[in-house]
Amino acid sequence: MNYSYKGKILISTPDISGDIFSRSVVLIIDHNEQGAFGLILNKRNEKMSSKLLEIFGFQVTVYDGGPVENDKIFFICKGEKFTEEFSELNAEFYLTEDIENMVAAILDHRLSITDVKVFSGYSGWGALQLDREIQLKMWTPVEVFNLDYTSPNDQSLWKNIMENLGGEFLLWANSPEDVSMN
52-70: b or e for each residue (b if 16 or more CB lie within 10 Å)? Predict the structure, then answer.
């Protein structure tokens, strides 16, 4: 491994599989010789969101972080740190699994729900697996500046990034969701 994609955004290449990674935007949290760890930023989990609405009495949108360990909850937060258990993503954002402190901060109105994004599960790759997938053009790594990781994102995020890349990516951006229909 000669290069780390840590902190980069991966844009999936459309395919006909229709799996969780189809039209995904993934933030790579960590990438080293042992593998990679990331979170999908644009796939809402309506079932989990409904469960949290029942529990809290207010809307909390949960995103599918990826297909691995869907019982694990992750938070990307903006601003003040309400836990000592966190990984800094950059000067503005951090990642934590500290459910107790995050929920307490939200319920006590110390942390606005708009400054946090909740994920169920994560995306993981074994040693050199991500590098191979990028070589096979399953993913396009991009530098995205000023992206608010906590903003509500949907499929428009994938399309907007593809359009901004221009060139051949415009074809993908404007292709139908089911590329076999193209």
Answer: beeeeeeebbbbbbbeeee
| Residues counted in the chain | 182
Contacts of 59 (CB under 8 A, 6+ apart): 49, 53, 113
For the stretch 106-125, pLDDT in tens is 989 999 999 999 999 999 99
Q: What is the 3-state secondary structure (H, E, C) of 163-179?
A: HHHCCCHHHHHCCCCCH
Cβ proximity of 9 and 142 under 8 Å = yes
Global confidence as pTM = 0.91
Sign of CA dihedral 22, 168, 41, 54: negative
Secondary structure tally for the chain: helices H, strands E = 5, 9
CA–CA dist 35, 30 (Å, integer): 8
Q: Is 40 exposed, middle or buried (0-12, 13-18, 19+ CB in 10 A)?
A: buried
Copy the structure tokens of residue 173. Answer: 């951006």
Task: State pLDDT tens for residues 32-67.
Answer: 999 999 999 999 999 988 888 887 777 889 999 999
How many whole angstroms from its chain centre is CA 29? 9
The answer to whether 151 and 160 are in contact (CB under 8 A) is no
